[in-house]
Amino acid sequence: MEASSSENLKVKKRMDEIGQDSGDEMQFSNLVEHRLTELENKEQEKAKGMEKMNKCLGTLEANYSFVLSDRDEWKKAFYNLIMPPKMMKRKAVKKMVKKQIAEAIEEYERTRVNPG
Question: Where is this region: Disordered (predicted)?
Answer without folding.
Answer: 1-26
